[in-house]
Amino acid sequence: MLLLWGAAGFLAHGCVPAAGTAWEWDLPSYLEPPPIPEGESVTEEKVALGRRLFYDVRLSGNETQSCATCHEQARGFADGEATPEGSTGVVLDRNSMSLANLGWFTSYTWPNALMDTLERQALVPLVGDTPPELHAGSDLERVLSDMESDPWLGDAFVAAFPELDEPVGIDPIVRALAAFERTMVSLDSPYDRYLQGDDGALSPEAQRGLELFEGDILGCADCHAGPLQTTATQSNDRAETFVNTGLYEQYPPFALGLLEITGEASDMGRFRVPSLRNVAVSAPYFHDGSGPDLDAVLDHYAAGGRTLEQGPWAGDGSNNPNKDPRISGFELGDEDRSALLAFLDALTDPSYLSAPELSDPYGD
Ligand code: HEC
Ligand code: HEC
Predict the structure, then answer these.
(1) What residues does each domain of the chain span?
(2) By CB atoms within 10 Å of each CB, which of 4, 244, 258, 319 scores lowest?
């Protein structure tokens, strides 16, 4: 019976070969190509189109922003802001996330456990209005006619979606963006070369940092787990992937975390474990960008919760009732701190930060 269902699925989606040239993955042996929604495919044509769209300010309602405005390649596709402004000038509540190895994540954004595909996520910055990011919906006719009348893009939509009568539209745009995002693979850092058996790729100091990171006392790897550095690639279990780290004694009403989705009081302050890939270049940190640098992040963990002396959210985060018990604090001497920072630095993948195939094609 199972086999029959499998065959039916194949007939529904597989009898017409995916239009276009299948993307060739170049991955380490421990990783399969990322899962994709049923009926979807990653093709060179979609990826090429998605890359252009990612960098195209004409996708925003007032032609001022593209995805890359808040996701800059040299910063690991974060933006250096605590919280960015959207295209209409409204300041967002949350920090722009760095982007890498997204195809393997089980959910997207800081708090939204329901955001489970890249297609669904891309729709939010594209047309969402709470808050407005690209806000394409404010001038959708112009956005789509710009796409259609641009000679390169017009052809690229047809090449990427030859099966569609109307290849230019919101749905093909998010599908192409998602295809491009699935190819944003950052697995060529010194840490990766060390994982592949090159012992010299990590300095002795960074190796000591890795030991601390994975060891029981600091336990960073409990949450920033595995080569992709987050439990959100391995599990759909919210208890594993959404964690309150005690940043605030009382989380601000505009940053309640998973509670915003579930309405459960016990989900207050729980945010998805971010990957730490390229973390040394993607400051500031945390869901609200309130961690200025990696030293501040380590101070927070060492204290088992962050104390804010002043301001509207002053308080001792370690008293937060939802704080994960694993954030319990530890002693961190200067040498261990340097070692940990050396390891976090070794998660930077210079080839990713300058990869021509991920760069702004309008600069070509
Ligand atoms: C105005 C700034 C801004 C723009 C423009 C923007 N983003 Fe983002 N991006 C953010 C912020 C802020 C977050 C965190 C959102 C949240 O937690 O709700 C984010 C999160 C993401 C994530 C989730 C990453 C993860 O690890 O879960 C993806 C993927 C993403 N953005 C892709 C895009 C794409 C594609 C576009 C263009 C269509 C885009 N972004 C445009 C600011 C922006
Ligand atoms: C119990 C799970 C857990 C443990 C243990 C943990 N983290 Fe985190 N980490 C998280 C979560 C969740 C966030 C996001 C918190 C937020 O923004 O509210 C985070 C955020 C971070 C960030 C900021 C990343 C960014 O892009 O903004 C860094 C850096 C970091 N952790 C490093 C570490 C280090 C180093 C350790 C060990 C000392 C550690 N973490 C231990 C869950 C954990």
Answers:
(1) 12-24+35-185, 190-350
(2) 4
Q: What is the pLDDT of residues 73-97, one digit of tens each?
A: 999 999 999 999 999 999 999 999 9
Amino acid, single-letter form, for residue 11: L
Distance 274 CA to ligand 2 centre (A): 7
Q: Is the pTM of this model over 0.85?
A: yes
Cβ neighbourhood burial of 331 (10 Å; 0-12, 13-18, 19+): exposed
Point out the ligand nearest to the CA of residue 143.
1
Q: What are the pLDDT digits (tens) for 195-239?
A: 999 999 999 999 999 999 999 999 999 999 999 999 999 777 888
244 touches 250 (CB < 8 A) = no
**What gap in Å lies between CA 272 and CA 277, rounded to an integer?**
15
Q: Which phi and psi angles does 272 have, rounded to 5°? A: -65, 140
Domain 190-350 top-level CATH class: mainly alpha
Which CATH code of 1.10.760.10, 3.90.480.10, 3.40.50.980, 1.10.3380.30 fits the domain covering 12-24+35-185?
Answer: 1.10.760.10
d(C-alpha 80, C-alpha 285), whole Å? 9
Alpha helix segments (H runs only) across the chain = 2-14, 44-54, 67-70, 118-127, 140-149, 151-160, 170-182, 190-195, 204-214, 220-223, 238-241, 259-262, 294-303, 334-345, 350-353
CA distance 277 to 57: 27
Q: Which atom of ligand 2 is nearest to the CA of 247?
A: 18
How many A from CA of 107 to the centre of ligand 2? 16
Closest residue (by CA) to atom 36 of ligand 2?
220
Nearest CA to ligand 1 atom 27: 108
